[in-house]
């Protein structure tokens, strides 16, 4: 079973190609069925019309034969009495001689069903055939008599061909000689028409099958094109994804190296220098104590203690920059407030923070992302904007959460999206895109035009009240 699953498992590109191909195949199959149905229906109508026209031509031919035969003996029949045996014999001889083609002949029955003339099938003569039916059960002689009594008419039935002895479809036309109570008629076999119709139907079926084959070939080619396009697109997208992944990986490494360099500079320029001062102060105090100068050792010891306090403050500041504990302990609002207070004290830039309390309901990833974006924005403001006033506003609403950072600085040199944004703005964009949020930056050049950074997170990142209360209890808040 596991091996079967591995065999039928599809890649993402193959699934996309399959999803694209299935509607195409279904649509083309439906079109093919409709085309075949309409083609068959149209051809059938045409074949039926052809069959009717051919049969009608045969009927007209039969009518002409019978009319000519009747004209041939009309002078005899017109002057003869109903019981004129000689006239009847003479007319029977005339009709017996009127044969045509391989199977054409005239026949005569009286109204009692006795055959009087049948030149190609003489075994029928002088025998009563009332009630005769063909192989399909269709009445033959009785129908002749009925039509003759009405004057004339056509009748179709199965009859044995004199030339071959095989049964075939025949159409007969009969007229009635009412004075003599005779049925005079002739018939033609329409097996040629049946063969022509069958051939036409076979040709239609062959055309429909060819159409199906053409459509199938087109569908197969289209499906192959879809799959090939999907594979090429997948290869292209995979290459782009690999290239982007390499680029992102390199940027992660660069960011790590930059962060390490920043921490190293902080340690070297700050804590390291302070600790060196502490070492000198302690060394000075030790020398004075070794000389017995207890009073003189107080001043270097005090300086050393002061320097140690400064070092502790620096360690806390670096630790807060790396991972603020207040973010985990009290939530995003207090963490941003502490960040703005520290920014105000460090830079002297007037900074205001406001928030609408929504009970710290953001998930952990959203808190970290918004905090880092605010941190990056404040760093950019400090380094590049020349602003004198900054406001940070955080609020939750029915669509999610929004953080808005505004300054009155010089603005950005290039509007976002034109390819010249710095790594800080790219980091903001990538952080918020990972959370399906949006980042909007409004900026204009000029004296105190300022910049607005607006970050929005969807409602899906706000925790339900019950889940939020459980997480807060676990965090001890």
Keywords:
477 residues, five-stranded antiparallel sheet, five-stranded mixed sheet, 10 strands, 61% helix, 15% strand
Task: Explain what the structure shows.
The protein is built from eleven helices and ten strands. Helix 2 (12-79) packs antiparallel against helix 5. The two termini are 51 Å apart. It has 477 residues and is of the alpha+beta class. A five-stranded antiparallel β-sheet has the order 2-1-5-4-3. A five-stranded mixed β-sheet has the order 6-7-8-10-9, covered by helices on one side.
N- and C-termini, Cα separation: 51 Å
Mean pLDDT figure: 80
Largest sheet, spatial ordering of strands: 2-1-5-4-3
Order of helices and strands: HHHEEHEEEHHHHEHEEHEEH
Determine the strand fraction and express it as a percent band: 15-25%
Helix content class: 55-70%
- Sheet of most strands: 5 strands, antiparallel
Helix/strand/pairing class, anyone? alpha+beta
How is the secondary structure organized here?
Blueprint: H1 2-8, H2 12-79, H3 85-97, E1 106-110, E2 115-117, H4 141-150, E3 152-160, E4 167-177, E5 182-189, H5 191-290, H6 294-322, H7 325-329, H8 332-347, E6 350-355, H9 364-385, E7 389-397, E8 400-407, H10 423-434, E9 438-443, E10 451-458, H11 465-475
Parallel strand pairs: 6-7
Antiparallel strand pairs: 1-2, 1-5, 3-4, 4-5, 7-8, 8-10, 9-10
Helix pairs in contact: 2-3, 2-5, 5-6, 8-9, 9-10
């Amino acid at each position: 079973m596991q091996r079967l699953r591995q065999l039928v498992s599809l890649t993402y590109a193959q699934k996309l190609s399959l999803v694209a191909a299935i509607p195409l195949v279904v649509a083309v199959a439906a079109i093919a069925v409709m085309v075949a149905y309409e083609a068959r229906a149209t051809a059938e109508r045409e074949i039926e019309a052809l069959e009717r026209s051919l049969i009608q031509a045969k009927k007209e031919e039969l009518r002409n034969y019978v009319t000519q035969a009747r004209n041939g003996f009309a002078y005899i029949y017109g002057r003869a009495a109903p019981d004129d045996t000689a006239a009847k014999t003479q007319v029977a001889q005339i009709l017996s001689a009127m044969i045509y083609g391989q199977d054409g002949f005239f026949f005569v029955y009286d109204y009692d069903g006795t055959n009087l003339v049948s030149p190609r099938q003489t075994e029928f003569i002088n025998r009563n055939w009332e009630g005769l039916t063909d192989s399909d059960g269709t009445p033959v002689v009785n129908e002749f008599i009925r039509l003759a009594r009405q004057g004339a008419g056509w009748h179709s039935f199965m009859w044995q061909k004199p030339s071959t002895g095989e049964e075939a479809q025949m159409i007969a036309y009969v007229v009635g000689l009412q004075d003599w109570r005779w049925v005079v008629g002739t018939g033609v076999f329409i097996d040629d028409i049946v063969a022509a119709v069958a051939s036409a139907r076979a040709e239609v079926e062959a055309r429909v099958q060819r159409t199906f084959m053409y459509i199938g070939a087109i569908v197969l080619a289209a499906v192959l094109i879809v799959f090939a396009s999907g594979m090429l697109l997948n290869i292209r997208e995979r290459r782009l994804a690999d290239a982007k992944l390499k680029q992102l990986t390199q940027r992660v490494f660069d960011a790590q190296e930059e962060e390490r360099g920043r921490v190293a500079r902080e340690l070297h320029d700050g804590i390291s220098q302070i600790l060196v001062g502490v070492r000198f102060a302690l060394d000075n105090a030790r020398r004075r104590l070794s000389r017995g100068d207890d009073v003189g050792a107080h001043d270097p010891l005090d300086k050393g203690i002061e320097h140690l306090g400064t070092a502790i403050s620096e360690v806390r500041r670096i630790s807060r920059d790396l991972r603020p504990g207040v973010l985990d302990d009290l939530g995003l609002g207090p963490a941003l407030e502490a960040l703005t207070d520290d920014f105000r004290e460090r830079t002297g830039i007037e900074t205001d923070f406001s928030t609408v309390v929504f009970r710290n309901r953001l998930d952990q990833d959203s808190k970290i992302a918004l905090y880092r974006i605010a941190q990056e924005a404040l760093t950019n403001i400090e380094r590049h904007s020349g602003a004198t006033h900054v406001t940070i506003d955080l609020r939750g609403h029915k669509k999610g959460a929004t953080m808005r950072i505004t300054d009155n600085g010089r603005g950005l040199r290039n509007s976002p999206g034109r390819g010249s944004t710095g790594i800080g703005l790219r980091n903001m964009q990538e952080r918020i895109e990972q959370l399906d949020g949006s980042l909007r930056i409004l900026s204009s050049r000029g004296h105190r035009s300022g910049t607005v950074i607006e970050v929005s997170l969807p409602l899906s990142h706000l925790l339900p009240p019950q889940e939020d209360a459980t997480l807060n209890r676990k965090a001890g808040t």
